[in-house]
Amino acid sequence: MRDVLIGTLSGVSAVIAMALLMPRPQPVTLSVRELALADTRYDELGQDYLPATRPDPVRLKLEQTMASIDVKEMPFDKLVSYLSELTGANFYVDWRGLESSGIDSHATVTLNLQNVPASVVLKAALAGLGGGNIQLGYHVQQGVVEISTVDSLSRDTATRIYDVRDLLEQEVARSRKRPDHPEMTEIEATDALARLLQEAVDPVSWRDAGGSIGGFRAFAGRLIITQTQENHEQVLGLLSALRRMGAWPTTQGASK
């Protein structure tokens, strides 16, 4: 019995020793680029949150250049049908909203434009229809170009998640090259980018500035923004410009 007990204790000691001496497996750490690839597996889970780092396919259709358009007193609904056939985009006209502003389905437009995108043609037509104190506009939502009054469109907001990890990494790395300033943290870079966006895109619309439309939160290198469709386009345009520039102004950079 004594020999059995000694043997058992020796076996337990050996197992404990092996567990202590063997190297423990280290957690796998993915680089930012690998994380970006892994995130694509969950795209379907976030369909309600538009992938703001990718070009909107409908916007690309509206950017197609038209050779020319020369029309005189053309019914607006026919112009919309023409643009739909030309670009392949789906259009929806909020006639109830337009009629409440005094614009009915018999309204006409006169245009003479050459070598401009379809979006410019649409904007020019809406400016001609509105005039005075009536402002008309459009936005793209769920693959449809919706046309209505600016007031109506401004009440229609969407939430998008912007992946800005590349911009934050870039600015943190750039701060290390400034000998006369402390290295910027990711949180500081995020705050600086948030300020830049809120100052550049419809500043009075943000809730932090007393507005009632724009919402802004940051999480793990992403910006979660609630805004009108038009303002989202401005946010996307500004982020694209910053990426092309390869640098952007921060509090530290401005104080040099």
What distinguishing features does this structure have?
2 domains; single chain; 256 residues; Phage tail protein beta-alpha-beta fold; elongated; 11 helices; 46% helix; 9 strands; three-stranded mixed sheet; four-stranded mixed sheet; disordered C terminus; alpha/beta
What does this structure look like?
The chain is 46% helix and 23% strand. It is of the alpha/beta class and 256 residues long. The chain folds into two domains: 110 residues, no CATH class; 92 residues, Phage tail protein beta-alpha-beta fold (3-Layer(bab) Sandwich), CATH 3.55.50.30. Strand 5 and strand 6 form a beta hairpin. Helix 4 runs antiparallel to helix 6 and helix 8 packs across helix 9. The longest helix is centred in the first third of the chain and has 20 residues. The protein is elongated and about 65 Å long. The C terminus is likely disordered.
Short description:
The protein contains eleven helices and nine strands. The strands form three sheets. A four-stranded mixed beta sheet has the order 1-7-9-8. A three-stranded mixed beta sheet has the order 3-6-5. Strands 2-4 form a two-stranded antiparallel ribbon. The chain has helices spanning 2-21, 32-39, 57-62, 76-87, 95-100, 118-130, 150-154, 165-175, 186-200, 229-245, 251-254; strands at residues 50-51, 65-75, 90-93, 108-117, 136-141, 144-149, 157-163, 215-219, 222-228.
What's the overall geometry?
elongated
Radius of gyration: 28 Å
Uncertain regions spanning at least 5 consecutive residues: 25-51, 251-256
* Helix-strand sequence: HHEHEHEHEHEEHEHHEEHH
The strand order across the widest sheet is 1-7-9-8
Number of separate structural domains: 2
Q: Please work out how many helical segments DSSP would assign.
A: 11
Tally of DSSP β-strands:
9
**Main sheet attributes: strand count, strand direction, barrel closure:** 4 strands, mixed
In percent, how helical is the residue content?
A: 40-55%
Overall structural class, as computed from helix and strand content, comes to alpha/beta
Strand content: 15-25%
Task: Report the span from N to C terminus.
Answer: 81 Å
Mean pLDDT: 77
